[in-house]
Amino acid sequence: MKNEVKTSPVAHYDVCVTKIESLNKHTFEIELLAPEGTVLNYKSGQYLKLELDVNNDGQPLWLSYTISSRLEADKPNRVSLIIQVVSDFSGKVVDCLFAAKASNQPVKIVLAMGKAFLQTNLDQPHLFVAAGSGISKIKCITEEILHRDPDANINIYWSNRHSDDFFLLEQFHNWATTHKNLNFHTILESAQPGWTGRTGFLYEVIQQDHIDLKETHAYLCGSPQMVYGTIDQLNALGLEERNCYSDVFEFSPRAEKLEA
């Protein structure tokens, strides 16, 4: 689906790194704060670009990260990111942010980008599908939906390769306990020792739980193969691509149908 929606102009800000919290052994939540009185204009589900001299060579890079926190009226100058250390490069990114926090040195951001933000009718069911760190976008959109309509119908499916890749589980489980129409499912790609939860492809687990997705809006976060493959597999249940939203539609337009 091509999301032909209007977005606000992007803007540059200087922000301070005010908090870095470890969520698991390789995942960090980063809090950025703009000067008091600043309003960071973004929609839940968008992303920003962060300027860092990652290689310490005087040539800063602009890096894209999904915004993981909804825009709050009482703190409109605050924004959060979730960054996973999965390579030497991402490790350097986190090191740069620790250094910026320690020195109280501002960093530059540009926001907001992305057309796959929350824009759907909350009276209809919502299906959220995430692989790995894609849950950052889902977290942000879920926060916004629950703020607007605590009784909204939401089904969240989150897949990882290993059980210790999950994070913020307490928050998601609390949402599922507190909000009667919110269901949260964790999935591993394949069975592992000690894992008693569900396994398999995301679309397989969703097919086990649903028989009709015709009126459902879906937000999908992951690789192009996962996103397009899941949509194609769920088409038999009535899920229509015009009711689907993903950043993949912008950075990797569909050329042909892919397997999940």
The gist of it:
Keywords: Luminescence, Oxidoreductase. It holds the Pfam family NAD_binding_1. It contains six helices and twelve strands.
Q: Could you give me the name of the CATH homologous superfamily of the largest domain?
A: Nucleotide-binding domain of ferredoxin-NADP reductase (FNR) module
Name of the top-level CATH class of the largest domain: Alpha Beta
Give the structural class. Answer: alpha/beta
Largest sheet: 6 strands, antiparallel
Distance between the termini: 17 Å
The total count of strands amounts to: 12
Estimated radius of gyration: 18 Å
InterPro entries: FAD-bd_FR_type (IPR017927), FNR_nucleotide-bd (IPR039261), MRET (IPR050415), OxRdtase_FAD/NAD-bd (IPR001433), Riboflavin_synthase-like_b-brl (IPR017938)
GO molecular function: oxidoreductase activity
Protein name: FAD-binding FR-type domain-containing protein
Keywords: Luminescence, Oxidoreductase
Record the SSE blueprint.
Elements: E1 11-24, E2 27-33, E3 47-52, E4 61-66, E5 78-84, H1 88-103, E6 107-113, E7 126-131, H2 135-148, E8 154-160, H3 169-178, E9 182-188, E10 198-199, H4 202-209, E11 217-221, H5 224-234, E12 244-245, H6 248-251
Parallel strand pairs: 7-8, 7-11, 8-9, 9-10, 11-12
Antiparallel strand pairs: 1-2, 1-6, 2-5, 3-4, 3-6
Helix pairs in contact: 4-5
GO biological process, one term: bioluminescence
InterPro entries: FAD-bd_FR_type (IPR017927), FNR_nucleotide-bd (IPR039261), MRET (IPR050415), OxRdtase_FAD/NAD-bd (IPR001433), Riboflavin_synthase-like_b-brl (IPR017938)
Keywords: Luminescence, Oxidoreductase
